[in-house]
Protein backbone atom coordinates (compact mmCIF):
# COMPACT_ATOMS: atom_id res chain seq x y z
CA UNK A 1 0.00 0.00 0.00
CA UNK A 2 0.95 3.65 -0.11
CA UNK A 3 0.39 6.67 2.02
CA UNK A 4 -1.37 9.76 0.72
CA UNK A 5 -1.01 13.37 1.71
CA UNK A 6 -3.30 16.02 0.30
CA UNK A 7 -3.39 19.76 -0.08
CA UNK A 8 -6.80 21.39 -0.42
CA UNK A 9 -6.93 24.46 -2.61
CA UNK A 10 -10.61 25.10 -1.93
CA UNK A 11 -12.36 23.41 0.95
CA UNK A 12 -15.84 24.49 -0.15
CA UNK A 13 -17.99 22.02 -2.03
CA UNK A 14 -19.39 23.17 -5.33
CA UNK A 15 -22.06 20.48 -5.25
CA UNK A 16 -21.35 19.54 -8.87
CA UNK A 17 -19.43 16.74 -10.42
CA UNK A 18 -15.66 17.06 -10.23
CA UNK A 19 -13.05 15.34 -12.36
CA UNK A 20 -9.49 14.28 -11.65
CA UNK A 21 -6.30 13.66 -13.52
CA UNK A 22 -3.54 11.19 -12.69
CA UNK A 23 -0.01 12.57 -13.05
CA UNK A 24 3.20 10.55 -13.20
CA UNK A 25 6.87 11.43 -13.66
CA UNK A 26 6.74 14.21 -11.08
CA UNK A 27 10.06 15.36 -9.60
CA UNK A 28 10.67 13.53 -6.30
CA UNK A 29 10.75 16.80 -4.33
CA UNK A 30 7.47 18.15 -5.76
CA UNK A 31 4.71 18.95 -3.28
CA UNK A 32 0.94 19.28 -3.60
CA UNK A 33 1.00 23.07 -3.91
CA UNK A 34 3.43 22.84 -6.83
CA UNK A 35 1.07 20.37 -8.51
CA UNK A 36 -1.82 22.81 -8.16
CA UNK A 37 0.32 25.70 -9.38
CA UNK A 38 0.94 23.95 -12.71
CA UNK A 39 -2.76 24.12 -13.53
CA UNK A 40 -3.34 27.51 -11.93
CA UNK A 41 -0.95 28.93 -14.53
CA UNK A 42 -3.35 27.65 -17.22
CA UNK A 43 -6.32 29.30 -15.47
CA UNK A 44 -7.98 26.06 -14.36
CA UNK A 45 -10.03 25.76 -11.15
CA UNK A 46 -8.45 23.09 -8.95
CA UNK A 47 -9.98 21.62 -5.81
CA UNK A 48 -7.15 19.55 -4.28
CA UNK A 49 -4.02 17.55 -4.98
CA UNK A 50 -2.82 14.23 -3.56
CA UNK A 51 0.71 12.92 -3.87
CA UNK A 52 1.35 9.20 -3.52
CA UNK A 53 3.96 7.93 -1.05
CA UNK A 54 5.36 4.48 -0.34
CA UNK A 55 5.37 2.90 3.12
CA UNK A 56 8.71 4.53 3.92
CA UNK A 57 7.27 7.99 3.17
CA UNK A 58 9.17 8.41 -0.09
CA UNK A 59 7.36 10.06 -3.00
CA UNK A 60 6.19 7.73 -5.75
CA UNK A 61 6.51 10.72 -8.14
CA UNK A 62 2.81 10.42 -8.95
CA UNK A 63 -0.47 11.85 -7.75
CA UNK A 64 -3.94 13.15 -8.49
CA UNK A 65 -5.36 16.62 -9.03
CA UNK A 66 -9.10 17.19 -8.70
CA UNK A 67 -10.77 19.91 -10.76
CA UNK A 68 -14.07 21.76 -10.39
CA UNK A 69 -15.22 20.57 -13.82
CA UNK A 70 -14.65 17.76 -16.26
CA UNK A 71 -13.85 20.44 -18.87
CA UNK A 72 -10.91 21.67 -16.79
CA UNK A 73 -9.71 18.09 -16.30
CA UNK A 74 -9.80 17.48 -20.06
CA UNK A 75 -7.99 20.76 -20.71
CA UNK A 76 -5.37 19.78 -18.10
CA UNK A 77 -4.56 16.63 -20.04
CA UNK A 78 -4.27 18.57 -23.29
CA UNK A 79 -2.12 21.36 -21.89
CA UNK A 80 0.05 19.66 -19.25
CA UNK A 81 0.75 16.22 -20.74
CA UNK A 82 4.44 16.15 -21.74
CA UNK A 83 5.01 19.50 -20.00
CA UNK A 84 8.64 20.03 -18.99
CA UNK A 85 9.10 20.57 -15.26
CA UNK A 86 12.19 21.01 -13.10
CA UNK A 87 14.98 18.56 -13.71
CA UNK A 88 14.01 18.09 -17.36
CA UNK A 89 11.18 15.70 -16.53
CA UNK A 90 8.13 15.55 -18.77
CA UNK A 91 4.82 15.03 -17.00
CA UNK A 92 2.48 12.24 -17.98
CA UNK A 93 -1.07 13.53 -17.40
CA UNK A 94 -4.18 11.47 -18.07
CA UNK A 95 -7.79 11.42 -16.91
CA UNK A 96 -8.12 9.43 -13.70
CA UNK A 97 -10.30 6.36 -13.76
CA UNK A 98 -13.29 6.32 -11.48
Describe this structure in words.
- The chain is of the alpha+beta class and 98 residues long.
- The protein has a single domain, classed as 2-Layer Sandwich (Alpha-Beta Plaits), CATH 3.30.70.330.
- The chain contains two helices and seven strands; from the N terminus they run ββαββαβββ.
- A five-stranded antiparallel beta sheet has the order 1-3-4-2-7, covered by helices on one side. A two-stranded antiparallel ribbon has the order 5-6.
- The N terminus is likely disordered.
How do you describe this structure in short?
This protein has about 100 residues and is an alpha+beta fold. About 20% of the residues lie in helices and about 40% in strands.
The domain count comes to 1
CA-based shape: globular
Mean pLDDT: 84
Biggest sheet character: 5 strands, antiparallel
- At CATH level 3, the topology is Alpha-Beta Plaits
Keywords:
98 residues, alpha+beta, Alpha-Beta Plaits, 5-stranded antiparallel β-sheet, two-stranded antiparallel sheet, globular, disordered N terminus
Give the arrangement of secondary structure elements:
Elements: E1 3-8, E2 19-24, H1 32-40, E3 46-53, E4 59-67, H2 70-80, E5 84-85, E6 89-90, E7 92-95
Antiparallel strand pairs: 1-3, 2-4, 2-7, 3-4, 5-6
Amino acid sequence: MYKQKSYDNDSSSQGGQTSSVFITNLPSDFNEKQMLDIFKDFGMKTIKAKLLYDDAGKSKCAGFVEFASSTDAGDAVKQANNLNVEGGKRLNVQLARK
